[in-house]
Amino acid sequence: MPELPEVQTTASILHKLVIGLKITDVWTDYGGEYHLGKKQIKDKKYFQSFRKNILGAKITHTNRRGKNVLIYLDNKKIIAVHMKMTGHLLYGKYKKIGIKSVVWEAIEPEALKDSFNQFIHLVFSLSDGKSLALSDMRKFAKVNLTEEESAGTIPDLAHLGPEPLEKNFDLNKFKERLMLRPTKKIKQALMDQEIIAGIGNIYSDEILFASGVHPLSKTGAIPKEKFALIFKAMKLVLEKGIDFGGDSMSDYRNPYGERGEFQHHHKAYRKTDLVCERKGCGGIIERIVVGGRSAHFCPRHQKKYEI
User: What single string gives the DSSP state of each residue in 215-275?
Assistant: First the structure.
């Protein structure tokens, strides 16, 4: 699932590409009885209202909140896109092929032709003759529309914790948030979107590796000096993820259709059975399951703290 660095990369690139453009049409093949009555575009009735409310609107800016891309329109509405497991937004020139069974063929840029970019299920046609498309292989992504003044009330935004890279999110606030769940395992606490927004499986592994804390450590048992190390590592790792354009170990591609580079800088994530890269450590990276998610760590230098 795209995490904070991938979503931030997407929002930042789109801000350069689509600001000032009008939405001239919108198409989707999402649907099905399972989604009836849901307040998102997979419900066909909702999609019709969604389409009516955005046609002709101009994109004023884009932003990110947690793992959501927010597209602001000049009619004071916001398109909220949660890319979920395999979704990513793409921008370029497309050709629509077919009527009942539609395929969107990427024309340019060339990177849009990457096989991971071929699962197009939502397309916004734009006034510059190009399109903003959502590729979503597993079809888990969520897209809905909200009023700008009430954006914080939609389900994917309503209960999000603070943003970890905000300047006012300091060590004291970090510790305060994590101590809301003192008996929770630190790996799970970092990934809990109600505690802190945006961190997922990849970056929690890298943060804990860098700070020397075992993923099974209980939050309330971690000493204050280690909290400071986790906090510092969180800032550095997330900023590094953004600097490298996100992580494309799996499906993620940026709006140009290109891969990020953070996967080449992993220290723990998916490094199972490899020698720890920390100088002088010599441990072997292990994989365990924590709360249904994989956790990769070095059992030698990552210390476990228990209540």
Answer: TT-BGGGS-HHHHHHHHHHHHHHHHHHHHTT---SSS---TTS---SGGGG-SSTT-TTSB
Q: For the segment 42-75, what is each residue's pLDDT rounded down to a tens digit?
A: 999 999 999 999 999 999 999 999 999 999 999 9
Please say if 2 is a catalytic residue. Answer: yes
Could you give the domains of the chain?
Answer: 4-65+67-158 (3.20.190.10), 171-297 (1.10.8.50)
In the set 42, 65, 67, 253, the catalytic residue is 67
| Closest to 143 (Cα-Cα) out of 89, 97, 193, 184 | 89
259 assigned to active site: no
State residue 121's pLDDT score: 97
For the question of residue 3 being annotated catalytic, the response is yes
Instruction: Please determine, for residue 93, whether its predicted confidence score (pLDDT) is greater than 90.
Output: yes
Structure tokens at 207: 């943060």
